[in-house]
Structure formats: structure tokens, C-alpha cells
Amino acid sequence: MGQWKTKYSKLIIRKSDTVPEELHQMVQEGFLTLQKHDCFFQDLVRIKGKDFVTPVSRILIGNPGCTYKYLNTRLFTVPWPTKGYDIKYCSPQIHDACKALIRLNDYLHIEAVKALQGQNLFETKEIKDTTVIDREQNFATSLTEKGSVSKDQSSCCVPEDDYISLKNRTSYNLTLLNYMDPLQMLYLKQEPYFGMGNMAVSWHHDENLVERSTVAVYSYSCEGSAVAESNEQKLKGRDPAVWHVGLKVAWDIETPGLAIPLHQGDFYLMLDDLNMTHQHCVLAGFSPRFSSTHRVADCSRGTLEYIIGQCELALQNLQTDSDSMALSLKSLETAVVKQVEEIHNEVEFEWLRQFWFQGKRYLKFTDWWLKPMAKLEEFWRKMEIMTSLVLSEVGKEEQIKEQRNETISCFLLVLTERQRLRKEWTARCQSEAAESLPEDQKPECRPFWTDDECDMPLPYDLEEVIANLQNLVQWVE
After folding, report:
1. What is the DSSP letter of 190?
2. pLDDT tens track for 118-170
3. DSSP β-bridge partners for residue 360
4. Spatial distance between the Cα atoms of 196 and 186, rounded to a whole number of angstroms
5. Nearest to 262 by CA among 243, 247, 249
6. How much of the chain, in percent, has pLDDT values that exceed 90?
7. Largest CA distance in the chain
8. Ramachandran area for residue 253 (φ above 0: left; ψ -120 to 50: alpha; else beta)
9. Rounded to whole angstroms, how far apart are CA atoms 379 and 325?
């Protein structure tokens, strides 16, 4: 077992009997509620230019306004109950399910802090248990083994930076819930390197996370008494009836991989840089299984607050004449035009199209996202006007040749990208994979408009606009 100590020491497994019974109950009830309300969805993802529907069904729950992007698809959090936010859930049961998950989140945060302290995975030796901050105190303190996180211990012995880094790397801002019933699957891929059998999720690293942050996974397989131990005599290798998490060193198939059984209510932690140095997979058992995978998502460009800030920044270049109410641009400097048009692309392709691409799934939980999306669409419409203003300005001849040429060339790049992405999204919305989804989950290609819709300043298809600009550049040269 030497390998286990050296190669896999940052994987921590905790058996279900270490978790408070009350928490198990809340969370497991939450899973079943969400399943009963059809709240798990197969994601339409894009891998190497092809569209696939994921075999696992998922939903993202977390801090309001947070998003998580994987395989070119941005998921939007169903907000869990959060102080200071007015979130209207579709039913009290859905509210309770989301509340159960934030409780689990608080508990796993504390467990991760203790595990990191136990491994001294940051510099200081003498550390008392961290004081638990804010809302975590109320519930989680009563949940953790008595006295392990007590309120009277101050965090005085932890140097400030370590304490903050420890907190940052374990403060999960969302959880991606997964559900899969292996018996409903037509076929499952076989694990290719170590003969570990059926895979629910292939070997991968989790993407889009804060560097060296912990990932915590709570597993709940709906084992009937039947699966206690499968009847197949213990062949070499794992028990095929039981779900496992697989772990291997990245880019290495010499070091033996690890398959660890996960029973109902077990959880595991991937500490520190384990998610970077190793890959993991999920090996299917026979029974349906839920999991809640808590992450510190890198939200630097993934929160509502961020994108609203970007839009407001772009719109600073738009001015309204107080008399005529005519709109014009404050600056035509290349750098300014470039920045505004890039933000235009960002809000259109990373937010509006991503959101509507997922059909109406979020409305099964809450209408929380509708207002912010309407606001972003309003910003985006103003940016369409800004693009048309740039077009009419560069068409005029008063400008200095060099500067005008520079502006046009840079403007062309962003518009060409916009045209390419519009085509890609139109195709994604009509792909075979998209057509296979149930009606209420089918992607919506939005924003979309036809040439005769007169309230839009520019056409949806930018081909002609781009051709005219290219002629302008040649003509100016």
C-alpha cells in the first residue's frame, strides 16, 4: 500500500457513519424531491466541435448569480436560500431541497478545513481549529463532532494569510448535483486502462476551479438490500454492483489506478492540487445514484455582478443628446471600440445564448434569473446600436486614414468572430443532440430576429456588413 500513501494521500474518504444522521436525512430527501419534480437535466455539451447529450443528468445549485462552465456549456446556479436575496421558489419542497444542500455545503466546508489542517497542507504547524464564520456557526457547529469546532477558540494561532487561503480554498460557492440510473443506459463506456468496468463519467479533471481548491463529493446510491454485496463471487477487481470513484495519476497508466467503493452517504475530499495532478472517473454500480459535488468555482468572469459591470463599462461610451435625444459614441479610439465590441460578444455568447440554450429548465425552480437576463438583453440591445454607430462613423470620410484603417481592421476582427459564433450557436440549437431533448428542454436560439423586424439596427447575419467593411479597408489602402 506504499503507493496509496505517496500517490494518493490527498484523497480523503469518510464513511457515512461519520456524518450526522439528521444531515443525511435532509439531503437524501432533497435529492428525491428534485428527482420527483424532474429537476435533473442532461446537458448539451460540445466536445471538439461536436454536440453531445451527457449520460448523467445534472443541476447546479449555489450562490445567487454564480455560474459554472464545463465543456463549452455555462450552467447557471439555482440560487440556494441566501441572506439578503429574495428568492421565490416554485414550491416549499424545492426551497427545502436547496436549503438542505447549503447545509451540506457548510458541513463539507468545515470537514475540508479540518482535513487540510490535519495534513498541514499549508505552512503553519501549530493550528487550533478554525473559527467558523457567519452562518456556518449556527448549524454546522451543532453538526460537527462535539467540540471540534467550538466558538471560544479564536483563530489567533493561524497566520492571517494562511487562514484566508484555507478559507478561500474550501469555501464552496456551488454544487453540481448528478443523477444516473445505470440500468436506463443503453451502453456505458468501459474503463480503458485498468479494467475497472463500467464508467458513468470518464477520466477527467474538474475544470474552471480556483487553483488548489478542494472538491467535496457526497454520494448517495439508492441501494436496495439487494446490492449490499453483489452475488458475483469476488473476481479480481472491483465489485460491479457498487459505485466507485476511480483515481489515477494524470498522464500515467503505469502507476496502478485506485477504485474506491462508495456506499450510501459516504463522501470524499480531493485536497489541494489533487484535481490537477490526478484524474478521476466515476465507476457505475447497479443502482441509481445521486451525488453532490461541491466546488470553489473560479467566478472571476462568471458572476452576474461581473457581467453587469462589464456592460456598464461598455455603455459609458454611449451618449444621448439632451435636446434631440439622438445617440452617439463618445470616442472612436480603436482601443475603446475594441473593448466595447468584445464586451458585446461576451454578453451575447457567454450569457444570453448560453442561458436560452438550456431551454426553460431554471423555471422549474424559481424565476430568479429572468429579471437579470432581461436586464442583460437590454444592455445588449444598446450595444447593437453602438455597433451600428461605429459602422456609420467609419463609413464617413472625415477621419484620418491611418486611424480609420486601424479602427476598421480591429472592428472587423470582432465582427467576424461574432458572425462565426452566431453561426455556431444557430447550428448548436439545431443539432441532432438538441432535437433529441424533450420539448420543454429544447434550446432556444435567442436573441434571434429576421431582417424585417425593424426595431433592430443591424441584421442577425453580418455577412454583408463584413463584406462592406472589407471593401472599405481595401479602398482606404
Report:
1. B
2. 887 554 443 344 434 344 433 433 333 333 333 333 444 556 777 788 888 99
3. none
4. 19
5. 243
6. 76
7. 86
8. alpha
9. 18
